[in-house]
Structures are given as C-alpha cells and as structure tokens.
C-alpha cells in the first residue's frame, strides 16, 4: 500500500535552503509514497475576525460567504487528515518558527476538526500519523533555553494528535556548519521508511 506524505516547506528561501535540502533527503528515505506538497513561501492568509466567526459558526449554519472564508483552511485540514506522514522543513527565525508556519498552524488547529475539547481536556483527532521535522538554525541550539521552535512544533502537532514526532536538526550552522550538517545527515540516514 502506498503511503501519503504531506510535505511542508516553511523556509522563505526557495534556493539554497538547508531545510528544503533536508526534506528532499528525508522524502527519499520514505519511498515509496505519494506526496502532497505545501510550500509556505507563498504566503498563507492570516486569520481574521470573519474567519474566526465562520470557524465558530456550526458547519450546518454557515453562510456561503463563511464557507468561502474557510475553504483554504478546510483544504489544509484535509491534507493533514489524508496524510500518513508529515515531513516539515522548519527553519528557526528569531528563535521561533517562521510566520508562514504559524499562519499554517492557525489555519489547521481547529476545534472539532483537528482536536476537540473533552471533560478530560483537549484530545487530538489526527492520530496514527508520523511527523519528521527538519529544523535548521544559524545560532540557536535545538532544545536549548532560547529555542522556541522545536518545543512549539512538537507541542502543537501533539495537541492535534500527532505524537510520533522526530526532529532532525542542523542547528548552529553559522557556528559549526560542517559539524551541524554532518549530524543532520547522519540523523537522516537513520530514518526508516
């Protein structure tokens, strides 16, 4: 059976991007698969008051305008639902995730769609999925006290039910480019389909 991989690139750089190169190598390790690619360098819209109002209107009561407002969000959620695995290229910008990735999260983290509230607390609805996050930084060590990206991405994916999250880091590239890339390459080589 062919698996479906959702490939998300969050780097603003289309050429010379470390995370894009890493995701390409990761995808090669996951063969065979069919993929859907979402390139966030083409900006997603930010959520607005109209979007929030449409999102919190029960689906069967939404106007045509509200359904149109949520159309892209619905498409992004469906990409996540359909995927068996998610491969994310995530550069660290100013100690955190790029704004484009945060915009994507805001469009897919939806109560009743990707998570729900229960008496026991929130419950993720995107279960039985694997995520591999290729994370790169110039000076921020992944997992350090100044890294606000890796913990966030693990938390938000887990919040939506994706608990199997593997980080592949090429961090501190401005400090030790050779060592950082070597460590990332070794981690990618260990990824099993």
Name its key features.
single chain; 193 residues; alpha/beta; Rossmann fold; five-stranded parallel β-sheet; two-stranded antiparallel ribbon; 7 strands; globular
Task: Give the secondary structure arrangement, pairings included.
Layout: E1 3-9, H1 18-29, E2 33-39, H2 49-55, H3 64-69, H4 71-82, E3 85-91, H5 99-108, E4 115-118, E5 121-124, E6 130-136, H6 150-159, E7 164-170, H7 177-189
Parallel strand pairs: 1-2, 1-3, 3-6, 6-7
Antiparallel strand pairs: 4-5
Helix pairs in contact: 1-7
Question: Can you walk through the features of this model?
Answer:
The chain is an alpha/beta fold and 193 residues long. The protein contains seven helices and seven strands. It has helices spanning 18-29, 49-55, 64-69, 71-82, 99-108, 150-159, 177-189, and strands at 3-9, 33-39, 85-91, 115-118, 121-124, 130-136, 164-170. The strands form two sheets. A five-stranded parallel β-sheet has the order 2-1-3-6-7, with helices on both faces. A two-stranded antiparallel ribbon has the order 4-5. The longest helix is centred in the C-terminal third of the chain and has 13 residues, at 177-189. The protein is globular, with a radius of gyration of 17 Å. 34% of the residues are buried. The mean pLDDT is 95.
């Amino acid at each position: 059976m062919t698996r479906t991989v959702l490939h998300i690139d969050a780097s603003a750089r289309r050429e010379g991007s470390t995370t894009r190169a890493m995701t390409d190598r990761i995808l090669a390790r996951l063969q065979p698969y069919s993929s859907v690619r979402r390139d966030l360098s083409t900006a997603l819209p930010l959520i607005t008051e109209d979007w929030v109002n449409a999102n919190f209107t029960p689906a069967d009561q939404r106007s045509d305008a509200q359904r149109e407002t949520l159309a892209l969000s619905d498409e992004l959620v469906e990409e996540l639902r359909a995927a068996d695995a998610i491969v994310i290229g995530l550069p660290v910008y100013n100690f955190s995730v790029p704004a484009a990735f945060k915009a994507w999260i805001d469009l897919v983290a939806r109560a009743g769609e990707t998570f729900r509230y229960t008496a026991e607390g929130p419950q993720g609805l995107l279960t039985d999925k694997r995520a591999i996050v290729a994370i790169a930084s110039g000076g921020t060590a992944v997992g350090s006290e100044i890294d606000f990206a890796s913990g966030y991405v693990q938390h938000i994916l887990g919040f939506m039910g994706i608990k199997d999250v593997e980080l592949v880091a090429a961090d501190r590239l401005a400090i030790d480019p050779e060592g950082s890339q070597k460590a990332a390459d070794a981690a990618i080589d260990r990824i099993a389909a």
